[in-house]
Design brief:
By secondary structure, the chain is of the alpha/beta class. The chain is built from 16 helices and 25 strands. The structure holds zinc ion.
């Protein structure tokens, strides 16, 4: 048995043991990433990012902590990507320079990754990106990997089958069982059933919609509502969806064309993804149906369909700029119909609603997601999850990809499907899980926190910076400036107190007078000349912090600035 210290040092698992650790995606929707290892070989499954919540002030995005991977660097055989969504590939521009191994995915997944790397100016040698065909076998040390076709909201999504000396693993990836997909074949249930028959020691499955009863609607279910809008709208139709939801783009183009509209793709991300999908045969566009923004000029509104990104309210997206009136060539008109063909990711609701309110204020008619039938989730509902569990009937199960309540619900579905409770582990990021012939168990923990990305560099923002930003946003800042004699430390000038974001002038003035007295007292409190500036700064800080807490109940950031003259 590996000791806790051994786990923290990244020692390999004992012979005959599969080890699984999620570095992200457990207890949260986002930054999915996991390590699977056996003997001296480790593989990474996905490497996603997460968008920050409102508490993470000034943070652009969040990626997984890869301390545990650094410890396994010599044993890392490859990164396997289930599909091309941000929460599965988005961390790679930041992590690939450090992780020295190839990246495997379907051509569409790698195409989306290439677009992403290009946008981030991340130079990755193209031979590191290895396209994989479904059914092809890849050897990664003692691990053999196979990609199995499934359906989700991006083309060529896959489940992974990993054959190892310690047993077989099935990772479903993100999926729904779409039997009437808009493009590509339905999921390869025959192969999945066969894998189940061969025997699966450990199954990992998408928990996003474990709380949603029934099954996810097919992608093609969006067609009728979208057709109605295209046919009846008096003015322009603006369809907003994810830049990677190629099937939705295909439906929008087809329905626009059949109702005598021409389409214009708005937004660089979507344009580059559409190009990739066309090049790979995943999107079919007849010549002349999709036009550039300049060709829109002569067209009547009734003949126009715009397709754009920004369904999550992303501040730099086309929709956010259109709603704010800052887009270079799309201005909202009162006759426009905006179709938001997505549901907000949990946590994003407020930002999305702000954008929708701005559109409504400008007079546009707004149709939204599942409510108006213009969106179908890409994630399996409870019945599909249970079906998948029964199809695979694994020896052990770890629900992944979900907030804690989703994981718990998915574990319940597994017991409904006949799995003993002891065969299921509901884990957190960093929980080390070992599986062998004797069963599944938690054996310890490794670091698996958040790494904050601010601007373009990783680890710009450490937790203390975030704490400071929170303090500033809540209680403001006070700068106390004073001059003391270099020789004896006596007060020569000040203290002057400047505040920002703390209180309004009328309330502040009497308070600042008293604060100056407190500061002066802190200055002269000790024996003259015995205080060095560091000590003085601390004494000043503590005296003022105590004063303001007492007087106002608040904890502004206090910065004493002491100059010696
Ligand atoms: Zn996904």
């Amino acid at each position: 048995m590996g000791s806790e210290a051994g786990l923290l040092n990244g020692d390999p698992p004992p012979d005959g043991t599969l080890r699984f650790v999620a570095l992200g995606g457990l207890g949260e929707i986002g930054k999915n990433m996991a390590i699977l290892e056996v003997g001296g070989d480790a593989v990474v499954i996905d490497a996603g990012l997460m968008f920050p919540d409102q508490e993470m002030l000034g943070v652009d995005l969040v990626i997984p902590d890869i301390t545990a991977l650094r410890q396994r660097a010599g044993r890392l055989r490859g990164i396997l990507l289930t599909h091309g969504h941000e929460d599965h590939i988005g961390a790679l521009p930041y992590l690939l320079p450090e992780l020295d191994c190839p990246v495997f995915g379907t051509p569409m997944t790698l195409g989306l990754l290439r677009n992403k790397l290009r946008r981030n100016n991340a130079a990755v040698p193209s031979e590191r990106l290895r396209p994989v065909a479904v059914g092809e076998e890849i050897r990664l040390g003692a691990i053999r990997a196979e990609f199995v076709h499934t359906t989700h909201s991006v083309p060529d999504s896959c489940a992974l089958v990993l054959d190892t000396p310690a047993g077989r693993v099935l990772h479903t990836g993100d999926f729904k069982l779409d039997h009437t997909p808009v493009s590509g074949p339905p999921p390869d249930l025959a192969r999945l059933a066969e894998v189940g028959r061969l025997g699966v020691r450990l199954m990992l499955s998408d928990s996003t919609n474990a709380e949603v009863a029934g099954v996810a609607p097919s992608e093609s279910a969006v067609g009728p509502a979208l057709r109605r809008v295209m046919e009846t709208a008096e003015g322009r139709v603006l369809v907003v969806t994810f830049a990677s939801n190629i099937a939705r783009v295909q439906q929008a183009i087809d329905l626009a064309v059949s109702s005598d509209r021409r389409c214009c793709i708005v937004g660089r991300n979507m344009l580059s993804n559409v190009d990739t999908a066309v090049a790979l045969g995943r999107l079919t566009v007849a010549p002349g149906t999709v036009i550039g923004p300049r060709q829109l000029a002569g067209l009547a509104d009734r003949a126009v369909c715009l397709i754009a990104t920004g369904a999550q309210g992303e501040p730099l997206s086309a929709l956010a700029r259109i709603s704010a009136g800052t887009h270079p060539f799309v201005q909202v008109r009162p006759t426009d119909t905006v179709v938001v063909s997505a549901n907000p990711i949990p946590g994003n609701e407020e930002v999305v609603h702000r954008v929708l309110n701005r559109l409504a204020r400008l007079g546009a008619r707004v149709l939204i997601g599942g409510r108006d039938g213009v969106h179908a989730s890409g994630h399996a509902g409870a019945d599909e999850l249970r079906f998948m569990l029964e199809l695979i009937h694994p020896e052990s199960f770890v629900p992944v990809h979900g907030e804690h309540r989703h994981l718990i619900r998915h574990a319940d579905l597994a017991t409904d499907a006949g799995l003993p409770r002891a065969a299921i582990v509901v884990a957190d990021n960093g929980t080390v899980i070992d599986v062998d012939a004797a069963g599944i168990r938690e054996v310890g923990r490794v670091p698996a926190g958040n790494v904050y990305v601010d601007g373009v560099s990783v680890e710009d923002v450490v937790p203390v910076v975030l704490r400071d930003r929170r303090a500033l946003s809540q209680d403001g800042i006070l700068i106390v400036a004073l001059a003391v004699g270099r020789e004896r430390g006596e007060l020569i000038g000040g203290p002057e107190i400047v505040s920002r974001g703390f209180a309004q002038d009328a309330r502040l003035r009497p308070l600042l007078g008293r604060a100056r007295a407190v500061a002066r007292e802190a200055c002269t409190g000790g024996p003259a000349g015995s205080r060095d500036p560091v000590e003085l700064r601390e004494a000043m800080h503590d005296a003022l912090a105590a004063f303001f807490l007492e007087a106002t109940g608040r904890r502004p950031m206090i910065l004493p600035v002491i100059s010696e003259v």
